C-alpha cells in the first residue's frame, strides 16, 4: 500500500474538470497497489480509479504503460482503459505528480487460488500476449537477468541475516543462471507482475487484469514462469501440479508455445524466482521505519527457487 | 489506516449472502480509518462500506454505535445507515471478527477547512445533538477527564524525549483541569471524534458524518471544544477566529447553548486538547515498527493547548 499523496480539494476539482466525466461525488484512497497511490473516484458519470504515480515509476515510462492499456483494452483484454481528457491526453499532473484516470473494473482478487483460477489466468495471459503483438511501443525489462547481479551486490551483505547460507545460495544460483540463460525466445509485451492481487475474478471467471506498471518487452515464457511461481504453490509453499497443468494447458490452447519455450520453463522459473527473491530481499533489508509499505517475505521465493532447482524437466509442471 | 484483515472469497460471499443486496461485484480495502478495516463493497444493488472491527473497538460497544447510526439516519442526519441482514441483524461475524455493512455516503473530506466548512459543521453537529436526545442507549466516554491521568502516567517517562519540558507542562495542566473541570453541563450523545477526515462535503455543503466509533454520552459543549481544535486552527497552528465564530454561531442557531456552556468553552477546549495530546503522545511512544498506522504528531495539540491557556474568555472564539 502506497505512501499516499494528499490531494487538495481544489486540485482534484480542477483535475477532474479536464475530463468529460462530470463532477466528483466521492474520492477515497485504496489500500492496494504498492508502487503508486490509487484512489476510488466517483463522479456524476460513474466509478473510476485515479492513480498518482509515485517515485518508483519513471515518468518517461508512463506513455508506454498507458498506451499499452489503451491498446489491450481496445483488443478486448479486460484491463483498465485510460480516460482521455478533452485535450486528448490521458496523462496530466496532479499535486505536482503525474496522474491518470482509468476505468473501474468489477471483480475481486482471489485470496486463495483454485485450479480454475489458474486455467482462467492461463487463457487470459495468452490472449494478452497475442493482443500485444501489434503494440508499437517498446520498453526494456529493467529487472532481467543482467540486472540481478548488481541487485545482489547491493544487498548480499545482509542476506545471511535473513536466512543463514542465503548469500552463498544466491551466488551459486546466479552463476548458473548467467551461464545457462537462453539467448532468445519468442518475445512480446508481458505484464511481468501477474500476482493474484493484480487479477480480478467474479463467479470463477477472470474479469480484470490491473497494474501494468512493470509491463515490458520480454519473453512470453518468462511471464508464464512468473505465473507458475505466483499461482501454483500452496500457502505452505508446496507446488500444486494440477494448478500448473491448468495454467499451461489453458495458455497453449490460445497461444501454442514451442518446444524450445517449453523446455526452458524450469530455468525460466528459477530465474523468475531469483528476480522476486532479490527484489524482496532488497526491500526487506532496506525497509523504512514508519513506511506504509510492509515488505514481503523473501524466504517464500527461496523455497520456490529450490523447488525448481530440483525438477528433472518441464514435465514437472504437468504437461507432457 | 488500519491493519487489514484479509477476507477469503468464500467468507465474503457467505457474509454478503446474509443480506438482500445482491452479489459482490467489487471489494477493495480503503486507506482511511485508523481503528477498523474498511472496505468498499460493490454489489448488484449498489455501493456500500463494509467494516471489520479490529481490536481497538470493544465488541460490547458495537450495538450502541450501530444503533446510534440507525437512530440518527432515521432522523435525517447524513450518517451511514447500517444495512440489516435478512435475520434483522446489522452485526455479524466475518473472518472471526465482528463486521457490519453500512450505506455509502457521497462526498469528500476536506483537505483544507474554510470558514464555510466550519459553518456547515456547526449546523450539522447541533442537528446531530438534537437528534440524539431521544436515543435510548448509553455509553460512557472512556476518555473523559478522569482517564487522562492514568494515560499520562503510562507515558510520562517518554514525554520529554518528544518535547523537552512536556512532562511538567502536562502535569501542571492536568492539576488545573482536574481542579477546575465543570461538575455538570447539558449532555447527550456526542460523536467525540469530529476531525475533518470524518466529515464529507460536496460543493461546499456537508454531505456526511462518518466513523461513530468514539461516540458516547458526554457534554455537548465538549464536542464543540473538540471541533474548535480540529477545525479552527491553520496549518501553521494559528487560531482562526472567523472559523470559530462561524462554527459557534451556526451551532447555536440550531441548538442555543446556555451561558454556562459558553463560559466553559476555554476550559473545555483545554481539556479537549489534553485528551488528544495524551492519546497522540501514547501512540507516538508506543508506535510499532512495520505497523500500517502512522502515529499523528502530538506537538500539534500542545500548541493548541497553549493557545487556549492564553485566552481571556470565551469571546476569544468570536462570539460575544
Walk me through what this model shows.
The structure is a homodimer. The first copy, chain A, is α+β, with helices and mostly antiparallel strands. Chain A folds into two domains: about 10-105, Phosphorylase Kinase, domain 1 (2-Layer Sandwich), CATH 3.30.200.20; about 115-315, Alpha-Beta Complex (Aminoglycoside 3'-phosphotransferase, Chain: A, domain 2). Chain A is about 40% helix and about 15% strand. Chain A has helices at about 10-15, 60-75, 115-130, 145-160, 165-180, 220-230, 240-255, 260-285, 300-310; strands at about 25-30, 35-45, 45-50, 90-95, 95-105, 185-190, 200, 205-210, 215-220. In chain A, the strands form three sheets. Chain A has a five-stranded antiparallel beta sheet, covered by helices on one side. A two-stranded antiparallel ribbon of chain A has the order 6-9. Chains A and B meet through strand 1 and strand 7 of A and strand 1 and strand 7 of B.
Main traits of this protein?
two-stranded antiparallel ribbon, 5-stranded antiparallel sheet, alpha+beta, globular, 2 domains, Phosphorylase Kinase, domain 1, 9 strands, 320 residues
Low-confidence stretches of chain A: none
Per CATH, the architecture of the largest domain in chain A is Alpha-Beta Complex
Q: Tell me the strand order in the biggest sheet of chain A.
A: 1-2-3-5-4
Principal-axes shape call of chain A = globular
* Assembly classification: homodimer
Q: Helix count of chain A?
A: 9
Number of domains of chain A: 2
User: Which fold name is given in CATH as the topology of the largest domain in chain A?
Assistant: Aminoglycoside 3'-phosphotransferase, Chain: A, domain 2
Average pLDDT figure of chain A: 94
Helical content of chain A stands at 40-55%
* Fraction of residues in β-strands of chain A: 5-15%
Text of the CATH class of the largest domain in chain A = Alpha Beta
How would you characterize the largest beta sheet of chain A?
5 strands, antiparallel
Q: Using CB atoms under 8 Å apart, which protein chain pair has the greatest interface?
A: A-B, 37 and 37 residues
Q: Give the full name of the CATH homologous superfamily of the largest domain in chain A.
A: Aminoglycoside phosphotransferase (APH), C-terminal lobe
| N→C terminal distance of chain A | 40 Å
Structure classification of chain A = alpha+beta
Radius of gyration of chain A: 20 Å
Order of helices and strands of chain A: HEEEHEEHHHEEEEHHHH
The count of DSSP E runs of length 2 or more, i.e. the number of strands of chain A, is 9
Amino acid at each position: 500500500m502506497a505512501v499516499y499523496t494528499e490531494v487538495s480539494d481544489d486540485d482534484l476539482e480542477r483535475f477532474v474538470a479536464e475530463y468529460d466525466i462530470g463532477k466528483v461525488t466521492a474520492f477515497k484512497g485504496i489500500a492496494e497497489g504498492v508502487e503508486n497511490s490509487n484512489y476510488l473516484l466517483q463522479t456524476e458519470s460513474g466509478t473510476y480509479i485515479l492513480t498518482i504515480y509515485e517515485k518508483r515509476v519513471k515518468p518517461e515510462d508512463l506513455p508506454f504503460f498507458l498506451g499499452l492499456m489503451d491498446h489491450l483494452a481496445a483488443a478486448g483484454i479486460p484491463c483498465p482503459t485510460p480516460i482521455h481528457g478533452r485535450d486528448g491526453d490521458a496523462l496530466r499532473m496532479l499535486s505536482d505528480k503525474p496522474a491518470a484516470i482509468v476505468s473501474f473494473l468489477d471483480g475481486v482478487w482471489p485470496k486463495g487460488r483454485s485450479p480454475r483460477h489458474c486455467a482462467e489466468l492461463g487463457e487470459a495471459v495468452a490472449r494478452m500476449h497475442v493482443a500485444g503483438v501489434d503494440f508499437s511501443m517498446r520498453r526494456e525489462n529493467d529487472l532481467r537477468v543482467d540486472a540481478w547481479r548488481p541487485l545482489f551486490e547491493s544487498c548480499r551483505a545482509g542476506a545471511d541475516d535473513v536466512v543463514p547460507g542465503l548469500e552463498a545460495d544466491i551466488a551459486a544460483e546466479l552463476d548458473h543462471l548467467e551461464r545457462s540463460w537462453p539467448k532468445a525466445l519468442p518475445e512480446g509485451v508481458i505484464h511481468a507482475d501477474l500476482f493474484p492481487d493484480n487479477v480480478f475474478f467474479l463467479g470463477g471467471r477472470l474479469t480484470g487484469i490491473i497494474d501494468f506498471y512493470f509491463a515490458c518487452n520480454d519473453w512470453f515464457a518468462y511471464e508464464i514462469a512468473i505465473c507458475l511461481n505466483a499461482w501454483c504453490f500452496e500457502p505452505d509453499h508446496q507446488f500444486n501440479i494440477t494448478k500448473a497443468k491448468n495454467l499451461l494447458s489453458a495458455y497453449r490452447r490460445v497461444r501454442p508455445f514451442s518446444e524450445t519455450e517449453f523446455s526452458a520453463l524450469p530455468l525460466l522459473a528459477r530465474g523468475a524466482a531469483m528476480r522476486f527473491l532479490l527484489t524482496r530481499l532488497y526491500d526487506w533489508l532496506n525497509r523504512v521505519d514508519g513506511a506504509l509499505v510492509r515488505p514481503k517475505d523473501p524466504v517464500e521465493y527461496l523455497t520456490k527457487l529450490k523447488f525448481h532447482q530440483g525438477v528433472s524437466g518441464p514435465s514437472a509442471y504437468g504437461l507432457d
